[in-house]
Amino acid sequence: MNNDNDKVINLFKKQEENSDISAQRFFKGFPYIKLTKDDSGNYFKEDSLRDYANKCYYIVTVMKKNGIGVGLYKYKVPYLSLLDFLNEFRNNRSYGEIIDIERYIPEDLA
Known about the structure:
Elements: H1 13-17, H2 19-22, E1 26-27, E2 30-31, H3 46-55, E3 57-66, E4 69-78, H4 82-90, E5 97-104
Antiparallel strand pairs: 1-2, 3-4, 3-5
């Protein structure tokens, strides 16, 4: 059985190995890395990144209690609405617990 995780690159591995570097790269307690070029070595272009993001959706999985246990609800949320959607749960205006957030790229975008 092939594990899809074999193809995943751990971007934070180098930081974990060198604690001096990782201690300097935090934003509000969260580790990060900075990327300035794409896989081809080209610098990112602000307009291209914004256009790409506006065409993407996020599949947000929310666990909610129902009569017999719990159910998973999957919401297709456009990029521009993602923060508003998340704030509904953070501010307790909607019930449920966010379990997963996955980026959905429409096929015609690739």
